[in-house]
Amino acid sequence: MSIYLIDKSVYTVYDFVVEELEFSFNLISEEESLHEFIEGFKIKSIKNFEELGYKNSWIRYLNRKADMEVTQIELEEAPLNFRLHGMKTMVLSASLHFFDEVYQHLTLPGDFISYFSKNKSKISTAMANRYKF
């Protein structure tokens, strides 16, 4: 897990790659202050801090406090961000000017990969039009 302190905000990124599927995954969270970071990750001691990793980031995603950024290797410059919201998953990409909603929770790597394959034409259209706006 990488932790970044920029100005007063704290950003965390946990990266993992499923090479055989040609996708990379990043669990990303952002806290407005160090205090929120400590509370959000339930850090009570240095040992808790040293043990931060996938499990902590994953719990934050499931609790709607983090985004899952998924990049299909061939579309490297245009990752999609997934965030759980209510009973749906919001999908967005600032670089593609793309927004979508899925009326189910996408939580497993297979769910995200399936989203890419089911929405290939939408994503391709956004890629083709991204410099027009």
Task: Give a brief description.
Helix content is 31%, strand content 35%.
Characterise this structure.
With 133 residues, the protein is of the alpha+beta class. It has helices at 34-40, 46-50, 54-62, 109-118, 120-129; strands at residues 2-6, 9-18, 23-31, 67-72, 80-85, 88-93, 98-102. A 7-stranded antiparallel β-sheet has the order 1-2-3-4-5-6-7. Strand 4 and strand 5 form a beta hairpin. It is elongated, with a radius of gyration of 16 Å. 20% of the residues are buried.
Distance between the termini: 35 Å
Low-confidence stretches: none
**Broad shape:** elongated
Please outline the major beta sheet.
Answer: 7 strands, antiparallel
Helix proportion: 25-40%
The tally of helices reads 5
Number of strands: 7
Strand order of the largest sheet: 1-2-3-4-5-6-7
Tell me the radius of gyration. 16 Å
Average pLDDT level: 89
Topology:
Elements: E1 2-6, E2 9-18, E3 23-31, H1 34-40, H2 46-50, H3 54-62, E4 67-72, E5 80-85, E6 88-93, E7 98-102, H4 109-118, H5 120-129
Antiparallel strand pairs: 1-2, 2-3, 3-4, 4-5, 5-6, 6-7
For this entry, give a set of tags.
single chain; 133 residues; alpha+beta; seven-stranded antiparallel beta sheet; 7 strands; 35% strand; elongated
